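RETRY 2/3 - previous attempt timed out on the joint model. Re-submitting the same 584-residue input unchanged.
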Amino acid sequence: MVNMFFPQLRNELWKLFGKKRTYIGFLMFLLAQNVIVVLFRFTNGPRVSMQRTLEGNGYLAEQFISGLTVATFMLFPIAYILMPLYVSLVGGDLVAKEAEDGTLRMILARPISRLRLLLVKWLAGVIFSALLVLALGLFGLLFASVWFPWGGLFVFVPGELFGVFDALSGCRQYALAHWVMVTKASTVMGLAFMFSCFNVKPAAATILALSFVFVNFIMQNIPYFRELQHWFLTYHLNVWQSMFAQPVPWWKLGQSLSILLGFNLTFLVVGATVFQMRDIKS
Amino acid sequence: MIRLRNVSKRFGSRLAVEDLTLHVPAGEIYGLLGHNGAGKSTAIGIMLGQVWPTAGEVLVCGHDVTARRQQALEKVGAIFETPVFYDYLSGWRNLEILSHYSAPTPAQRIREVIDWVGLTGRELSKVQTYSHGMRARLALAQALLPQPELLILDEPGNGLDPEGIHEMRQTIGRLHRELGLTILLSSHLLNEVEQICTRIAVMNQGKKVFDGALGEVKKDRAWVRLRVGDFSRAVQALRQEKIITDERDGQWVALAQNVGTDQLVRRLVEQGMAVYEVAHEEQTLENFYLSLMKNDGPSRLW
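RETRY 2/3 succeeded.
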């Protein structure tokens, strides 16, 4: 049965990428990035503020207001809001939609174990998450480079982050941040996937996952809980942005990635246990 | 081929299947009858390892489904009431996907089943363009892919027009004749079951109320329509002589074992009663089923 794993994974990918709704995330990224980049180019607000911050810190603004900087500037709102939405949309569909449509009953009339079925589905979800992050990074850089010149990278999050890199190391940090962001995307997908294993509608699985993420995010940002922020999932989910810090806090990064690995395993084990115990009925 | 021993399934406070014992022998076309909600689909779900029984033992192809589901289902094909597929993919792709949940399946095998069910030429079209009948054929194709020995059909006639039902009946016959499959068919379409099946089990409110060969049903104690001058007097006399065992509707009597209508008529004439008509009622599955449902159990009849 080991030799069937890859054909089964390929099947899941066929099913996933055969559906139009799988591409909503990619499409919305394209749209959002184009809107942001055009606004950034043709309005003064964010550009002037960035210019002031750079010059106030002794840097030449024109060297750093580049395609790379704008691509990273766009990354934050999209990674915080849009990406969890689209990965949880797909994660919530993976099991619950098949149960709702009735195809799950047809699959489970065959000699495949429930655990194996879940594993190939989860892996397909991880592959989707990685591709979505890859698209986010590539599209962003591409569109930003159409309107802005090649140059260094400047990242500034008030009170949290201030990073200035030359073009080459900026590119490297940008790529590494996306690499780490795959863990965020797959964790949120895994959370929705876990809910999808319960006897719920696909939309309910998506909403539950998003609620969990947003409630975490809100609580993490309440000043009262500031001291406890590392107890919240979103604190670790957004560790990708530490790739833009100078120096990169590798210890914190390793810690957060380990915690995310633990979350992923927990989601998978809870989902698999619930799915194993469930009755699959029409 | 399938053996259920004292299987029960409880959903919360509702007992969907109660102490069900069933044996589907190899080579039979076995009908599982019952009204909606009688527990047929739950019983099939239990046989396929989709629904966990609360109690009892389930063996399919000699393997315990709860403990060795993969081995039990290796040679099993199943079709459910409404054929659902990945509509946005082609028929061929659907078969490829579903076949890989069983075992490696060469393209040649997929071509063979497509040909067998008569979908050649449409296999590369998206399933969303298929008619209901074509979907039913595709459902059959996916069930045949693993070269099954046992085919489980859960309400296969649902939603089919008369032509579709006729085609389904012919196909089930072909599957049994040409491929030698054992078939378990759940349905509430009595006419279909009567024409197709060799054995039946009847379920009512989660319990099995009858299990036996269809021939037995037809050989059931004969009901005879009896038109005489005084029906009550005739019944009283015939009961005393143990010629009949039951009566109904003021004109029907059930003959006792090994009693013929000649004896019945002779006795009535000897008693001086005028006999106007004596006619055997043909026992249909429908009559039989309705009497089972009316009596809520086989005890009175069997």
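Chain B has two domains: 2-213, 221-282. Closing ticket.
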